[in-house]
Amino acid sequence: MNISILAVGTELLMGKTINTNATELSKALNNLGHTVQYHLTIGDNPKRLESSLEYLLSVSDMVITTGGLGPTQDDLTKETIAETLGLKMQFNEEAYTQMIDRFKSFNVTMTQNNKKQAYLPEGSIPMYNDKGTAPGFIAEANNKIIAALPGPPHEMRHMYFKCLEPFLASKTTNCIKSEYINLFGIGESSAESKIEDIISAQTNPTIAIYANIGQVSLRVTSSASNEIDALMLLKPTVDAITERLEPYVIGYGEHDIMDYTVDLINQNNLTLSLAESCTGGLIASEFIKYSGASRFFQRGYVTYSNQSKHDILNVKNSTLETFGAVSEETCTEMIEGLFTNSQSDICLAVTGIAGPTGGTLDKPVGLVYIGVKVKDTIVIKQYNFTGDRTVIRRRSLLNGFFMIYDTIKKTCN
Amino acid sequence: MNISILAVGTELLMGKTINTNATELSKALNNLGHTVQYHLTIGDNPKRLESSLEYLLSVSDMVITTGGLGPTQDDLTKETIAETLGLKMQFNEEAYTQMIDRFKSFNVTMTQNNKKQAYLPEGSIPMYNDKGTAPGFIAEANNKIIAALPGPPHEMRHMYFKCLEPFLASKTTNCIKSEYINLFGIGESSAESKIEDIISAQTNPTIAIYANIGQVSLRVTSSASNEIDALMLLKPTVDAITERLEPYVIGYGEHDIMDYTVDLINQNNLTLSLAESCTGGLIASEFIKYSGASRFFQRGYVTYSNQSKHDILNVKNSTLETFGAVSEETCTEMIEGLFTNSQSDICLAVTGIAGPTGGTLDKPVGLVYIGVKVKDTIVIKQYNFTGDRTVIRRRSLLNGFFMIYDTIKKTCN
Q: Which terminus of chain B is less hemmed in, N or C, by CB atoms within 10 Å?
């Protein structure tokens, strides 16, 4: 099916909220083989909602709306959806029962505002809201479908996977398969120029390049009447690109350098400890994002001050004075101190100047030292990152992961 | 002006990239008093780009595009913009000079692909790309304006603030002012029902409610012919809402609980140390996000394993065995150990079960203990959060900040 996603919410147009819903839904819909045609965002304005729904339904088979289902007064979304499809609003018993259960489990009393939420376009399939109170629904008329999901991302996500995805899975006919080839250490432009001839020749599969801070991914997508044919179409192109870009390929699938690093740590049954200065817990936090991190993660130190570098990691005061907190020497002593404390198989230390202040002519903002010790191998690298404080910290994070990944690859085989 | 934002990039429709550009631009445009009407996202498809530009220009005075300026072959954005405005493409000397300078500073050789980037619609104002190579531009024809910005968020941001905002600032006539009232510890629905009569009576200023994980904000917006009148219109409504919701009001402006907490720490000249288990460095990282964190941040420990809780924070093995790592007792000993090590004015410890595994009947996923010590006051709270691993960690983070904020408020006056 061709599907468009319509987000309703003035807060999105005010720049108060990021539309992560469109991204999550698009990923899931593409995985099911549906095509996403448009993302459109409008304010809480019934007239604009009506004209947008009409336009999107004229080009797409289905529109998924997000937002506008909360108990606040400007929520005319449901009424407008019903009108667009030529349907009446009806009190939906099933939706109401779901809401009562939900409020009981919360130990919260329902208000009149909340009861309003059980009115849906006639004939709708209500979608249970696992994480909030507003029910969603799927309404159909004249071969067009509108599905309404709530706005808060965690409510939207749960409702989509529990109720809408099973409904959608049954509507797919053509089979689309894709493979991501993930690169590290090469820019978008250089990657493209190395495979220009392969891109020029693309028809089926197609190739698209996606660049993000620190990682470039190539998405190869094929289309066929069945899964096997689609996969067979993919393979030669994926192999050809891999051969061409070999030194930069870190892996396949919808993964990033952090996923690959955690996999490699687990495969080699290694333990990990961290000492962070400018990243200040960011690297630890990204490791502990992974459920099961307790298998490998032993300890992390956020040694932002010189005092803490000395007290906790035993970095010599003379080193800090002579070479400065941001220096290869300090980084080396941080690693040594971390290993003494933790005895972990992998030790990582980061010290740098994330800015915007603190830079000098000798040591500008963006100067970062990252040190990795994997068993007996120690590698210290100096980076000169560009970007603002957030970007510099993010680049430090990703390169920290990459240095762990790379050092394990080189030493643990 | 009425402005629409058009994002170009198949990766957005594939769900590979989040459209943060639309959010950032909307915030900035609203601040200038412009109205954002639509966000639209399309794939790398010149025909759809042309019809979308035509539609948006028929309802808006201006369209800002993001993306499609990179050196990859599917970048037909510029050509299509020129066509839509009835302009020819022209080699732009100024843009080319800017690019040469940029490449020199990178120490990178220009490719033929890159030179293509200096062709712009005739009469365009080129916008210098501080952070990348692709130049942006502003093109005007028939009283309609199209501004083209690059897709990578940090390139987009710098170009907007450096080149496009000064251009736009001169185009504002009506003055729009708004104030955010930020709440913590109350849900969207409850907040709304407490000020229902004020919302019902709204005309100018208007009131909008925005909910995010753990924080609700009310945006009060007025419109007048000059700044003083607009501000005068705001005040009575802001005061009335503040009075009604007083116990939950944490502050005003575009700030969150983290901003207020850091301000309060600095105002009171306090120092801070952290011991994190389930949040695993997330809280430290959010503190160190603030430039100048070195004034107050002393040290952070990521004590994810029982061993590290014992070794680093001196949590008794008997406590861990009898009460478990996620218990009030362990949380208390983490605080005490942290204070012994750091002697910081503020000590915060977090231990909890972020899931998805590790929960039991007695201690389900979402059980989190947060302890705060501010000088001689110790507060330990038990939370039962809902949501997935990411949400539980985020709620722990925000409530950790709030507990610091609240305890300082209560003890340091």
A: C
CATH number assigned to the domain comprising residue B128: 3.40.980.10
Tens digits of residue pLDDT in B308-357: 999 999 999 999 999 999 999 999 999 999 999 999 999 999 999 998 88
Please report residues of B whose CB lies closer than 8 A to that of A214: none
Chain A residues within 8 A of B285 when measuring between CB atoms: 279-282, 284-285
Say if residue A135 is in the same domain as residue A47: yes
Contact B217 A40 (CB under 8 A): no
State whether residue B276 sits within 8 Å of chain A by CB.
yes
Is residue B78 in some structural domain? yes
From A149, A169, A189, give the residue that closes a domain: A169
Which residue is closest to B130 within chain A, CA to CA?
A: A387
Residues of A in contact with B291 (CB under 8 A): 354-357, 389
In chain B, whose CA is at the least distance from the CA of A298?
B305
pTM check: above 0.80: no
Put simply, whether B302 touches A (Cβ < 8 Å) is yes
Cβ contacts of residue A284 below 8 Å, gap of 6+? A274, A276, A297, A300, A302, B280, B281, B284, B285, B302
Contact residues on chain B for A19, CB-CB shorter than 8 A: 18-19, 22-23, 39
Q: How many domains is chain B partitioned into structurally?
A: 3
**ipTM beyond 0.85?**
no
Q: Are residues B238 and B288 in the same domain?
A: no
Residue A308 contacts B where some CB pair is shorter than 8 Å? yes
Residues A138 and A198 reside in one and the same domain: no
| A280 shares a domain with A402 | yes
Residues of B in contact with A38 (CB under 8 A): 13, 40-42
At position B142, the amino acid (one-letter code) is N
- Whether B284 has its CB under 8 Å from any CB of chain A: the answer is yes
Domain region containing B405: 264-411
How far is B331 from A227, CA to CA, in rounded Å?
52
Strand A125-127 and strand A136-141: pairing? Answer: antiparallel
